[in-house]
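re: the backbone from monday

yeah here it is again, tokenized this time
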């Protein structure tokens, strides 16, 4: 069958050329669609259930919220494990499924069971909600919302958080590929009603009367419609509170019969919600910000690009003196990783081309073999898109061009040798195209078995990696898949493209026994022959030396260090800082502000220091108030 494919390729050059151009065009299209990231996403398949109950302690949260949620979700098919975290005001339950479970089906199952458990929760315990459809690598973009110099007094932490929630977040949430925008830091604005108990008692009313009055005076109602002549007049009443004055003028029921307003027994003022986190910029105090979380399975490069474009549009709509400043951008890490891969691939390709030209002794033959490299890469990228493999440090960085061109080298070298052998004959006539086609088919058929056998051996080496499961499978399978795709592409090209191009490019090769390549190979062969004879005459020494080197290498290997993935030098640092357990937000902020000032004063190369304290609005990473990340 392989011989028939070679004969077809040499005979039907136009068809193979058209297929090659189609591969190039489709490959270039897929290059633009390939998801690019720094490393593979090894996060397991999980659904998070978040319940916020600001008034309850950790013991009550665990007993009344976390435990019922765990129990009701314990029998979902595909469930691997359930983890939970309970602290003051927060319950976080993480439900892990096997990798074959569809994440949206899993979320539906969890959501149905949360409806059952909702009725079991005590009143005021909060509502369990599903976390965003994101992963551990989903935090692709983080930014601060801060005032410009000179506007610090105009925009405090409350104003900045209001701008973040009502202007920035609402527009960013509509970006394609964004799962959640989790606001962080600032103060969530609320109107606070401070009731004075003495006045309450003096007028003979209870706190429940105040609650009832607030509830009944803050709603719109409808009254159907009435017909008047030819028109229909729709009736509605507007009773929603619009301002601080509306709250102050709410009438309360007084047992003495005297009209009483809320402002007579309470003070209404601006306040803020209970906080579990804060964000600081340099040593300049508190700001607001957010974490943009990417939808699971989305293309991070494309999502970040869309987010940046939307941020630029949002910046134009913000009040003068307020700016959005990113401090963590996944693009930087991706560019560093892909830049490293590109550099290594280009250097590797140039070295392979140089070696091919040098040892084949012919520039055209070397370039022909080297042309397999980009074509096999395009084929691999097409297959990566087809099988959902992203381009990253592990997948693209594993490519070895020496392996890719192995089959092509064998065939081209055989063709070159066959043509040179023809020209060495006495009275050798110039080869016609028909003669070249015959020589190419003949030499390719002879060497194809060797080429196929070599590539199959290489593929077999990667088979154990395909059997890996769990985190190690997610990390290393993309590497094996990419190499396998490239080898399969190179194998197909060796059967079709290489014979077809050899019959065209290598048609008029002239053998020059005095060129540098021939002289170099003759010199190397002479040295090898001498060393080979010495090795055969000293079998025992060679065997003993080999055993010594083998066991010596095992000893050396035992002292080598190891790491799970290669280290990426981003130029940024994340410092986990903690103060005494039980410290409040102000204490943590004061300590981290001192640390930020020291960093800024003593190290001029530090551009900025952003400190995230505690948890954000969506507490997927539930850090306590005494813990912080200094970026």
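seq for it, each position gets an aa:
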């Amino acid at each position: 069958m392989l011989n028939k494919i070679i004969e077809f390729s040499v005979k039907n050059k136009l068809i193979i050329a058209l297929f090659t151009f189609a591969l190039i065009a489709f490959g270039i299209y897929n290059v633009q669609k390939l998801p690019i990231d720094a490393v593979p996403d090894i996060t397991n398949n999980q659904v998070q259930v978040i319940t916020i109950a600001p008034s309850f302690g950790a013991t009550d949260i665990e007993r009344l919220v976390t435990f019922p949620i765990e129990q009701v979700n314990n029998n979902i098919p595909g469930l691997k494990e359930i983890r939970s975290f309970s602290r003051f005001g927060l319950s976080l339950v993480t439900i892990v499924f096997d990798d074959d479970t569809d994440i949206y089906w899993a979320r539906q199952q969890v959501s149905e069971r949360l409806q059952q458990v909702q009725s079991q929760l005590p009143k005021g315990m909060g509502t369990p909600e599903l976390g965003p459809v994101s992963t551990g690598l989903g935090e692709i973009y983080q930014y601060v919302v801060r005032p410009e110099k000179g506007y610090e007094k105009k925009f405090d932490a409350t104003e900045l958080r209001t701008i973040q929630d009502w202007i920035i977040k609402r527009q960013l949430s509509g970006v394609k590929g964004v799962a959640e925008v989790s606001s962080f830091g600032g103060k969530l604005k609320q109107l606070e009603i401070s009731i004075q108990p003495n006045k309450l008692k003096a007028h003979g009313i209870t706190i429940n009367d105040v609650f009832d009055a607030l509830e009944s005076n803050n709603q719109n109602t409808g009254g159907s419609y009435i017909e008047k002549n030819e028109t229909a007049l729709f009736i509605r009443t507007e009773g929603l509170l619009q301002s601080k004055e509306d709250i102050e003028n709410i009438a309360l029921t007084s047992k003495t019969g005297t009209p009483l307003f809320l402002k007579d027994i309470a003070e209404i003022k601006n306040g803020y919600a209970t906080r579990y986190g804060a964000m600081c910029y340099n040593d300049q105090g508190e700001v607001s910000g957010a974490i943009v979380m990417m939808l699971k399975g989305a293309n991070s490069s494309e999502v970040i690009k869309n987010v940046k474009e939307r941020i630029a549009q949002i910046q134009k709509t913000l009040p003068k003196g307020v700016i959005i400043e990113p401090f963590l951008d996944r693009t930087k890490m991706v560019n560093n990783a892909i830049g490293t891969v590109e550099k290594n691939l280009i250097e590797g390709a140039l070295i392979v081309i140089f070696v091919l030209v040098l040892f084949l002794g012919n520039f055209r033959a070397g370039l022909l073999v080297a042309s397999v490299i980009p074509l096999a890469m395009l084929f691999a990228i097409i297959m990566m898109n087809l099988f959902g493999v992203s381009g990253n440090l592990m997948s693209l960085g594993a490519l070895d061009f020496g392996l890719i061109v192995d089959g092509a080298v064998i065939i081209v070298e055989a063709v070159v040798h066959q043509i040179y052998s023809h020209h060495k004959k006495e009275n050798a006539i110039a080869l016609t195209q028909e003669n070249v086609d015959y020589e190419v088919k003949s030499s390719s058929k002879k060497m194809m078995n060797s080429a196929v056998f070599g590539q199959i051996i290489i593929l077999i080496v990667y088979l154990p990696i395909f059997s890996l499961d769990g985190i190690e499978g997610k990390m290393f399978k993309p590497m094996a898949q990419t190499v396998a795709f490239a080898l399969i592409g190179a194998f197909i090209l060796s059967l079709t493209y290489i014979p077809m191009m050899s019959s065209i490019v290598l048609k008029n090769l002239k053998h020059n026994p005095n060129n540098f390549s021939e002289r170099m190979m003759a010199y190397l062969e002479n040295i090898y022959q001498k060393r080979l004879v010495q090795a055969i005459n000293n079998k025992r020494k060679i065997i003993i030396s080999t055993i010594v080197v083998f066991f010596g290498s095992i000893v050396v290997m035992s002292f080598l260090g190891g790491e799970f993935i290669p280290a990426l030098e981003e130029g940024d640092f994340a410092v986990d800082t903690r103060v005494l357990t039980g410290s409040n937000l102000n204490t943590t902020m004061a300590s981290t502000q001192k640390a930020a000032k020291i960093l800024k004063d003593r190290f001029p190369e530090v551009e900025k220091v952003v400190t995230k304290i505690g948890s954000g609005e969506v507490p997927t990473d539930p850090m306590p108030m005494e813990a912080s990340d200094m970026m």
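The chain is about 50% helix and 20% strand. The longest helix spans residues 433-466.
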